[in-house]
Amino acid sequence: MKVAIITDQHFGARKGSKVFHDYFLKFYNEVFFPTLEKEGITTVIDMGDTFDNRKSIDFWALKWAQDNYYNRLKDLGCKVYTIIGNHTTYYKNTNDITAIDLLLREYENVVTIAKAQEITIDDRKILFLPWINQENRDETLQLIAKTNAHIAMGHLELTGFSPYRGFVMDHGDDKTIFNKFTKVFSGHFHTRSSDGKIFYLGNPYEIYWNDVDDNRGFTIFDTETLEHTHIDNPFSIYKKIQYSDTPHQIFKFDEFENKFVKVIVKKKTDENQFQKFIDKLNKVNTLEVKVVENYDLSDNVEFEASENEDTVSILNRYIEDSESSLNKSVVKKLVSSIYKQACEVD
Asked: Which has the minimum average pLDDT: 46-50, 302-306, 341-345?
């Protein structure tokens, strides 16, 4: 039996932005629901952070989620197991009050997973693990040690995996507590990563700038073979342009319509031609255009930044290559945190 796994949908994200939810809807209309129908899937596992704000809900966003997700799953006869994540539990130290229980009571097909438990789906026992906190930690760890399930699915914060591309978590739970399992699937981190046993599946779509050019989508899991397949989301809302005296006469601007665009200036010898390029870009109804002038690393002539590296990797390597006496691990963590916050600025 094939089931769909989706995680970190963050309904209501970006303050309930209609622009972003229109972008999200392309994924549901053209990828997610057509795949469910094609594969005959009637079981969906939401692995946490289904809604964005743990303390409140934008009513427009709630209606959007009902109309475009929950009602459609109900009409398809899908049962939905929803694991509680850190964004869908009100308190930080307990899962007692959850957005799923409060907002989705009318949906009999939605099952809330607020405490660690074993559930059998098509003769396959699966250990479900919601957000681990102060109150449930001991009980959760005991069940992990006791269970004979081969598969675990949860909303986990494990050290050694990437919450976003270019940064690796140096805190969290030790992954060795899952050594007994054949496969472990998790939400929480928005980028895909794995060590061959533990799989962070990533969220369905771009939400912030640090998601750009990173694969997004959902996953199909076969309960019989234990194989899983990523279904990619081909749609993006963020685009980068590497400008290097790029001729505006032959550049294809249409693909940047309804996109947030960053123009990264590598070479600009004619200001007039550059302005014509920007003017044409703005005419295709971009959502926003930001120009980033090339930075200068001339103080460190031995440092070379590859175009294949992402920003955080470049910054981390630059810090590592420096002769500073500061604690480089602390500096890299601080810079990565600042960069992430900058990417999330509207």
From this structure: 302-306
Q: Is the pTM of this model over 0.85?
A: yes
Q: How confident is the model at residue 299 (pLDDT cuts 50, 70, 90)?
A: very low
Say yes or no: 75 and 125 in one domain. Answer: yes
Report the side by side order of strands in the sheet with 79-83. 110-113, 79-83, 43-46, 2-6, 217-222, 228-232
Would the CA dihedral through 173, 176, 179, 184 be positive or negative? positive
pLDDT at site 346? 55
Domain count, the chain: 3
Q: Based on the domain organization, do 38 and 179 belong to the same domain? A: yes
Same-domain status, 27 and 171: yes
Containing domain of residue 244, as a range? 237-294
- DSSP secondary structure string, 29-58? IIIIHHHHHHHT--EEEE-S--BS-SS---
Residue 267 has pLDDT above 90, yes or no: yes
Residues in the chain: 346
136-145, Cβ contacts within 8 angstroms, sequence gap of 24 or more: 136/94, 136/95, 139/115, 140/116, 141/177, 143/116, 143/117, 143/118, 144/116, 144/177, 144/178, 145/177
From CA 107, how far away is CA 69, in angstroms rounded?
12
